[in-house]
Design goal:
By secondary structure, the chain is an alpha+beta fold. It is built from 18 helices and 30 strands. The protein folds into three domains: 182 residues, Aldehyde Oxidoreductase, domain 3, CATH 3.90.1170; 320 residues, Aldehyde oxidase/xanthine dehydrogenase, molybdopterin binding domain (Aldehyde Oxidoreductase, domain 4, 2-Layer Sandwich), CATH 3.30.365.10; 140 residues, Aldehyde Oxidoreductase, domain 4. Strands 3-7-1-14-11-12-13 form a seven-stranded mixed sheet, with helices on both faces. A five-stranded mixed sheet has the order 9-17-16-15-10. A four-stranded mixed sheet has the order 18-26-27-30, with helices on both faces. Helix 6 crosses helix 7, helix 13 packs parallel to helix 14 and helix 14 crosses helix 15. The longest helix is centred in the C-terminal third of the chain and has 28 residues. The N and C termini lie far apart (67 Å).
């Protein structure tokens, strides 16, 4: 191919117009004739036995069409003798009953489903169901939950999973250290707080297939629904919508099983949309972590040893907690070359709301810890914070503690220096104000664990008029996933984006592309579309070479024409397509892209050639202004600098870098659901505070392109890495302003005031 024409440009997204005009149809926008409305009855207690469930009065209410409890969920031998298992992940089974039968383990756990002729009737019926509880002891602290005397959330042990990494001789390393820093860091529950709530509509068609149209990051959950209902997978169809925010919160099963059960029973369309209060109460959160760090270095700043003990709060059920912990364990030492390392990590059951996937997937918690440690070491050694990092940054070709060799470019020195230099000169200090600056570097994997046989499929076909269709089961979270695929196909096939239609997210009609999680879709589905487009390009050029009597290598595709690169000959693409059709030649291509695969991991984390496909590296720099009287923290500058490998759509890359940083501000300074003894305190967005436009400075983006990533054209993932270091950078800036090291998030005005008074 000739030089790239479209890749790297700020292309308009194919869905931009409809979203700007407000006509995009989301999960809650679909209605059907005769549709029933659903509600979920949820537990009033975080830990209790269910002695009885009385639905008689609710069933007699006019307009109620179905009430389902655990006894009505089909039994399925394939579900490991557990009613309603929703997912299995490798050797670790994440078992979540669809409806609680005889025990509730967190506040808001589903107990019964109601379908009625109106939402008002469904809500009234919910209040008429009588549940008799026997309250049980609550364990809400993961450290306490590990003690032998602690109440058990599940039989056996409260410790759900463990991971370990060991490299070198940790004790020898600390003996050789000239300075040692030890701290314990705490992070909080964070809600995804997406604009669009969980919800959807389901119906049964003439072929007895249950169709579920909803907002989801994973259309492959049709398999989980089939398992729960005890029907063939071919009898469940999941149709994804455009998503008004996901961030991992729509990765697990949300409403799809509830809808399917009610449709199966009533044979009518059913709609279920959560309220904001219900969403905060009942969907997963980011894992709180307790992280004990001990870091040793030489006088010259060279790191010698790092010991970390990580404990994460899994909440009441497993979900993805073992894998979030694994990611955190692998990333715990940060982007640094350290000869002696020991990491021990555990994830623990409690009676808190369950925790699962959230943007950064364990990476931002440990980044807060290891980057705070790096600043502390610099302070103790009297070194420049940038200099100590430059001495220790891992380099291309070196190995991570788990054994994986870094194969792509590590542009940390450049991202750090450029981010730091991009901070503008601060305004003059005002009376009662303190200004501080800090930065944080990071590494974050993109793509799923290599032990998981990850793959993505795509189909590309050209029509008789030269227009193009792409089919792939990619859920679009609003990050421009679909638009990037259009841009890739347009680049390869020379067809303008306005002549390309893309069909996404239908488990029955689009080739499965896997989850929109783990910063994997551009890498996985981008490569699948790239392969399919190249295959189709080859078919077109083969036929065109016969028509033009030149070799394929002399031809190019551009603006719906086949041209001879060195010459004036050209023919319309549509003429070639017609000739292909007349000759009975294929005009479409199906491709499957497989990620690298490695042997299964074990909990001892022996040395592995590859744990993740690849890593993204970058740095953020922040400036804060602190009011000494009120403790209010204002982020006045924020710079985000990353090597993204190769830009596909510049607008999307910049948008991800800005959006991730803004979410990081909320994590650093505002967001906390404040669970006390298993009871959530922040119940709505008036109590759970997220950043507004008044809290956010202009985010400067500095984009580097090493072209060494595993994605199409050498791209790396940026969706999750864009948030990873923000909290650490802000915490380091606050330290610079106050001289106080805050070791727990969020860093609130109350914490600032108390710490300043204590310092006085």
């Amino acid at each position: 191919m000739s030089e790239l024409k479209l890749i790297g440009k700020p292309a308009q997204r194919y869905d931009a117009r409809d979203k700007a005009l407000g006509i995009t149809k989301y999960g809650a926008d679909f209605v059907m004739p005769g549709m029933l409305h659903a509600k979920v009855l949820r537990s009033k207690y975080p830990s209790a036995k269910i002695l009885s469930i009385n639905t008689h009065e609710a069933e007699r209410l006019p307009g109620v069409k179905a009430i389902i409890t655990a006894k009505d969920v089909p039994y399925n031998e394939r579900a490991s003798n557990v009613v309603g298992q929703t997912t299995e992940i490798g050797a670790i089974q994440a078992i979540q009953p669809v409806l609680a039968k005889d025990r509730v383990r967190f506040l808001g756990e589903p107990i019964a489903l109601i379908a009625a002729e109106s939402l008002e009737i469904a809500e009234k019926a919910t209040n008429l169901i009588k549940v008799d509880y026997e309250k049980l002891p609550v364990v809400s602290d993961p450290i306490e939950a590990m003690k032998p005397s602690s109440p058990l959330v599940h039989e056996g042990s409260n410790i759900l999973a463990k991971w370990k990494i060991a490299k070198g001789d940790i004790e020898k390393g600390f003996k050789e250290s000239d300075v040692i820093v030890e701290n314990t860091y705490y992070t909080q529950f964070q809600d995804h707080a997406y604009m669009e709530l969980e919800g959807g509509v389901a119906w049964i068609d003439n072929d007895e297939v249950i169709n579920i149209r909803l907002t989801t990051q994973v259309i492959e959950h049709y398999r989980d629904v089939a398992k729960v209902l005890g029907v063939p997978e071919s009898k469940i169809r999941v149709i994804g919508t455009f998503i008004g925010g996901g961030f991992g919160g729509k990765e697990d099963v949300t409403v799809e099983t509830f809808l399917a059960l009610l449709v199966q029973k009533t044979k009518k369309p059913v709609k279920l949309i959560y309220t904001r209060e219900e969403s905060i109460l009942a969907h997963d959160k980011r894992h709180p972590f307790v992280m004990k760090y001990k870091t040793g270095a030489k006088k010259n700043g060279k790191l010698v040893a790092l010991k970390a003990e990580l404990v994460s709060d899994a909440g009441a059920y497993a979900y993805l907690s073992p894998w979030v912990l694994l990611y955190a364990t692998v990333h715990a030492s940060g982007p640094y070359d350290i000869p002696n390392i020991k990491v021990d990590s555990k994830t623990v059951y409690t009676n808190n709301i369950f925790t699962s996937a959230f943007r950064c997937f364990g990476g931002t918690q440990v980044c807060f810890a290891y980057e705070s440690q790096m600043d502390e070491l610099a302070h103790k050694l009297g070194m420049d914070s940038l200099k100590i990092r430059e001495i220790n940054y891992i380099k291309r070709g070196e190995k991570l503690p788990a054994g994986q060799r870094i194969e792509s470019t590590v542009a940390l020195t450049e991202t750090a220096s450029r981010a730091w230099k991009a901070l503008e000169k601060p305004n003059k200090s005002k009376k009662g104000k303190r200004i501080g600056r800090g930065f944080a570097s990071m590494m974050q994997s993109y793509g799923r664990l290599t032990m998981l046989h990850d793959s993505s499929h795509a189909w590309v076909g050209i029509e008789m008029d030269g227009s193009l269709i792409i089919r792939t089961g990619v859920p679009d979270l609003g990050g421009g996933q679909g638009s990037s695929l259009v841009q890739i196909a347009s680049e390869i096939l020379g067809i303008p984006g306005e002549d390309i239609s893309i069909h996404l997210t239908d488990s029955s009609l689009t080739p499965l592309a896997g989850t929109t999680t783990a910063t994997r879709q551009l890498y996985m589905s981008g490569n699948a579309v790239l392969q399919a487009s190249r295959n189709l390009r080859n078919m077109i050029l083969s036929r065109a070479s016969q028509m033009l009597n030149v070799s394929k290598e002399e031809l190019d595709l551009t603006d719906k024409k086949v041209i001879v690169k060195k010459g004036k000959k050209e023919i319309p693409l549509v003429d070639v397509v017609k000739e292909m059709a007349a000759d009975g030649l294929p005009r479409n291509s199906f491709a499957m892209f497989n990620a690298p695969f490695s042997k299964p991991l074990n909990s001892e984390m022996e040395q592995y050639e590859r744990v993740f496909p690849d890593f993204t590296f970058g740095t953020q720099a922040a400036e804060v202004e602190i009011d000494e009287e009120t403790g209010k923290i204002k982020v006045t500058q924020l710079v985000s600098s990353y090597d993204v490998g190769r830009v596909v759509n510049r607008n999307s890359v910049e948008g991800q870098m800005e959006g991730g940083a803004v979410m990081g501000i909320g994590y650093a300074l505002l967001e906390d659901i404040k669970s006390e003894k298993g009871i959530i305190q922040a119940k709505n967005l008036a109590q759970y505070l997220i950043p507004t436009s008044l809290d956010v400075p202009e985010v400067k983006t500095i984009i580097l392109e090493s072209k060494t990533g595993l994605g199409p054209f050498g791209a790396k993932g940026i969706g999750e890495p864009s948030m990873t270091p923000t909290a650490a950078a802000i915490a380091n800036a606050i330290y610079d302003a106050t001289g106080i090291r805050f070791t727990s998030l969020p860093i609130t005005p109350e914490k600032i005031i108390m710490a300043l008074k204590k310092k006085e």
